[in-house]
Amino acid sequence: MGLGRLSDGLAPTPPMGWNSWNRFKGNVDERLVIESAEAMVASGMRDAGYRYVVVDDGWMAPQRDRDGDLVADPARFPRGIAAVADRVHALGLGFGIYTDAGTNTCMGLPASLGYEFRDARRFAEWGVDYLKVDWCHTSGMGPRTLYAKWAMAVHATRRPIVLSICEWGRARPWEWAGSIGHLWRTTWDIQPDWPSVMAILDRQADLHRFSGPDHWNDPDMLEVGNGELTIDESRAHFALWAILAAPLMAGNDLRDMPDEVRGAITAPEIIAIDQDPLGRQGRRVQSKDACEVWLRELAGGSRVVAALNRGTASREIAVTFGELGIDDRRVRVRDLWERADRSTAAGEILADTAPHSATVLRLVPY
């Protein structure tokens, strides 16, 4: 584990926002980005803590200009990126953009190898607040070296820009990226289905000690509201990402959200877990018979427990105070999805949990 950690205050809690990729892939344009930013405001997401509107792959023209600069696809972004960033900023939001560390982006568009300082400077001129740097087309290259170069390039712009490292966890970035970027992917791309969400969750179980303020493990963007995920699965996905102190980057169509999806991604007491100022990532403390218990310690001494039922039948999940590191005393129990206080408990917690769902309880000793 590296000793160096960023402490620039740009990501004291995990970044929250929206990214175009999960729902729209490369089908991005000016209208989509601006309408999504406007929907972030209208839906209450901005007031709930979501800040960044991030344009992923697909925004670039097929070639750089004659000066060697990246330029936006003129058909998709006829007014250019700076104009889009200005509109996003006017809504009280931050603007994010994508590039790739290799020779091309994942879609085969111009990437930034050899142009790191030039591209970082151009992004800063456009008003970029958040930069995602991907890892396609990097055969034979070393991520530590390339991402360190990116960190220097971003720093040289003198603009505060959150740096999102996206090399998919191949080189164990949790061991070295904390002194370079604000967040780093720990896994392959998420898919909008329950097996993918659960497989990625498993990959996070031992990474809690590498995360904290200004340096976050990133288990990938949210699929809440996408694909075949049921609302129970989506809520479990969202709650477990909050337990993990994960960046909460929505990936659905914000312009056409069912109320239950909006309710899930703006649930104030779940978001408060993710944004807890202590910044301590949760960990798995129990796993048996398709049921798990995940624990996160919060500022002020309280704890949050997620009782996760991966199975196909409802289960009563029990966890003892000893497993939770609580002294033998009573706690007040609050159900954070129901936003309702339960009775107090002593010795153990019992959670009746539906299949493919998670019961989320806040425990306050007294």
Entry keywords:
about 375 residues, alpha/beta, TIM Barrel, Immunoglobulin-like, eight-stranded parallel β-sheet, seven-stranded antiparallel β-sheet, about 25% strand
What does this structure look like?
With 366 residues, the protein is α/β, with parallel strands linked by helices. It folds into two domains: 16-274, TIM Barrel (Alpha-Beta Barrel), CATH 3.20.20.70; 283-365, Golgi alpha-mannosidase II (Immunoglobulin-like, Sandwich). 27% of the residues lie in helices and 23% in strands. The protein has eleven helices and 17 strands. α2 (30-42) runs parallel beside α4, α5 (116-126) packs across α6 (143-156) and α7 (194-203) runs parallel beside α8. The protein is globular.
In short:
With 366 residues, this protein is α/β, with parallel strands linked by helices. The chain contains 11 helices and 17 strands. The strands form 3 sheets. An 8-stranded parallel beta sheet has the order 7-6-5-4-3-2-1-8. Strands 9, 10, 11, 13, 14, 15 and 17 form a 7-stranded antiparallel beta sheet that branches.
